[in-house]
Structures are given as structure tokens and as C-alpha cells.
Request: fold
Amino acid sequence: MNPADDERFGAQLRAEAPAPHDATPSDDTAPSPAADSARRRWWTLLAVSAAQLLVVLDGTIVNIALPSAQSALGMSDASRQWAVTAYALAFGGLLLIGGRISGALGHRRTFLIGLIGFAAASALGGAAVNPETLFGARALQGAFAAVLAPAGLSLLTITFTEPGERGRAFGVFAAVGAAGSAVGLVAGGLLTEYASWRWCLYVNVPVALLAVLGATFVPRDRPVRGEGRLDVAGALLSATGFAAIVYAFNEAEPLGWGSPKVIALLAGGVLLLAVFAAVEVRAPRPLLPLRVLTHRARAGAFASITLLFVAMFGFYLFMSYYTQTVLGYSPVEAGLTLIINAVAALAGATLIAGKLHGRVAPAALIVPGLLAAAAGMFLLTRLTAQSTDVFPLYLVPALILTGLGLGCVLPPTASLATADVPPHDIGAAAAAYNASQQLGAALGTALLNTVAASATASYLASTAQATPTAASVHGYTTALTVAFVILLAAACVTAALLRADRP
Reply:
């Protein structure tokens, strides 16, 4: 993708933007239109980044609070997973519908609806007096996140069209997303330990309301003309198909990949999505136009971000288990360790990817980013139960490398996913990008946890005088070896799809 393409796309969007109602060419006392436009652009970035933090944060913050919530509300061991799963299913299953709603209502209006709904659902969850209320609130959070995420990315796409500003904006947006998971773990530990598990949900309310305040400065956009009625068949097929696959990934962790339930869910989900693709080809107003997926550069962005999230969420799982069960860290200390990763991701997204956007080809950022993350994974595969000086020699370099890699990959893939997309397809492209992240995260957590558990059990069964600690470390390093291979494969696929043309 090059600056000329970005500029042509920006000119198209500016041509379609509504004219100001009050300003006239002869109004010398009015503020400079250019200055007012710049101010509103950066307010857009602030509001969208706050919303992105909410969406990503809630994927992890409740995990730390779950034991306390289970005790307070009397959840059974079998049902407690729904506090996490309900959010993931609603979010992943409704993303494509959220993208269509964003185009039909207007991205700014949808963004505000999503923020207010997310705040209300969070307050309901924090005040829950029984498990059913908490599960329902988490599902509502996921549903509102499914309209909030694509609307936010769409607003960013249509607001920042100049290559330099676009790079900085997507760098900040990606940095917030990259740091969100680590911040969620830290915040969840601190709030649970020093306040209450309920504040892991209540904390969303002031953040969402601040984002609503910022969104009042966001320029209005027009709803996409000719959207017509909702593609009902596509909506039902996509929602049930994505939900079935996400649920299968969640169930694979406790039941194993060979479980009949997991196999049935996976087969059903794949079949539903295949039927969805066939329906979309013939639909007059498809929920997800297949041209969004078949574009070579966007396909590369979707593939690389999916595989990166598969590997990274397995990495976060390893960090949580290893630091607490082997190194003896408290949940708060384990979360604080990940701040190194978050700071590195922030640096990679803003100081490297943000500054180089438009100056180098996207592949020149994405492929090295994937390789840097792979190097961090590989370093941890060298760990043994006897390793000394683990924090300075292994954890810190690995956290820095994976963070830099994540920071270098997220901005260009987010930009590529929505660049050169016609205005009526921006919501769908933004939703598909978020869906790629959700599927990658769900698959990575389930797949690599299963690999680690299987390798641990095999080590205990085959190694004489094996200790539980040695077996656990062997399981973790085996899982990270798989993550390393996934990242190498992602780099190869991305290099093939994103040929490193000059920007």
C-alpha cells in the first residue's frame, strides 16, 4: 500500500463527507477549518483508543477476578467458565452484524450506542447478585463490543487519510490494543486484591463515559446509502458459525480436541461458515462482501493477525502459568511482569510502525515483526527446570521481542484491512479484522494449552523420576515451540501475500 493510494482513498472520502452547515467562505471570524478539523481528528483518536482499551481489557480482566466472583455468587466449577465464554461468544459471533449496523446507522452514532451499552452492561455485571445475571451481563458486553469495535476502526479509517497522520494514529490505536491484555491482567489483580472483583466490571463505566465525552467532538458521518434490509440469512449463519467455532475452541481446553462435543462443534461451525460464504456470493447486499477477503493485501493482513494472535495468546497463557506455578509469583506480580511486554508493544507501534507508515512497504514492518516475536518465543523454548536467572536472561528479552513484534504488526495490518475499501464496505472490513483477532485468540489459548497439557502428561509417563515442575516446564516449552513454528509460518505466508513493493 502506498501514499498515493492512501491519498486517492482519502480524497474519495472527503468528497463524500457532508459539508459544514454554518461556515461560509466569507466568515473571517470563524475558527480556521483546518485547525478545527485537526482538533476533531485527534479527539477521534482519543475516543477510539479508549473504546479499544475497553474491548481488549475485558477479554482478560475478568479472568483474574473469576475465583473471587465464583465464591461470592456461588458458581459451580462447571458453570464459572461462562463468565469468560459468554463475552467471547457474543463478541465473536456478532462482529459481522456489528459491522453492517455501523454502516447502516453511521459509524459515529453506532460508536456512541456501543459505548453507552457497554457501560450499562458493565454496571449490571458489577451489581450481579447471582451467576445468571453476571453471565447475561457479560454476553451483553460482548454484543455491544461487537458494534463498538468495527465502528471505532471505521471512524479511524475515514478520519485519518494523510499518510503521516494515518501512521501515527494507527500506531497509537494498535499500541492501546497490544497493551490492553497485559493491562487487563494487572488491573484485574490489583482491583481484586485491594478493592473487589466487582470493580473489574465497574471500572469500565467511567472509561466508557469519558470516551462518550470525547466522541461528541468526532465529526458526524453519513450512514451508507442503499444498505437496505439486513441480510438475515447471512447474519444467522455467521453468528452461529463463529459462535460454534469459538465455543469449540473454549471446550477443547478442558475436554481435549478428540472430544465428540468439540469435533461436532468444529464441524458444525465450519459447515455453517461454508454455507454463509455460498449465501454471501448470491446476496444482493451481503453482510461480508467476499471482495473484502479476496483482496491480496487484506488477505495477508487477516492471515498474519490471526496467526499472530494464535501464538501470542498462547504466550500470555504460558507467562501466567509459569510465573505463578514455577517461579512463585503472586497474580499481581505475574501481571506486572507483562508490563514489559506492553511497553515494548507501545514502542514498536508508535516509534517504529507509526513513524515508518507510508515510508516502507507494509511487508517490511509485518514480516520483521513476526520474526521478532518468533525470536522471543524461541528464547523461552530453551528454559529448563534448572535454569537460573530466569527473569533477566529469559523473560525480559522474550517480553521485549514479542512486544516489539506485536507493536510492529498491529498498525500496518489494521491499516491494510481497511485501506482502499469503498465507504460502504469499511464496516465489514473492520469487523472481519476484529473477527480474525478473536478467532486467533480463542484458538491459540485452547490449542497451546492442550499441547502443553499433553506434553506434560507424556513427560511424566515416559521420564523416570520426573518432577512435576520439570514436567510443567517441558509442557510449556513444547507449546512455545509450536507457537514459534506458527509465527515462522505466518512470516512466510505474509511475505508471499504482501510482496514488498516500494511504498
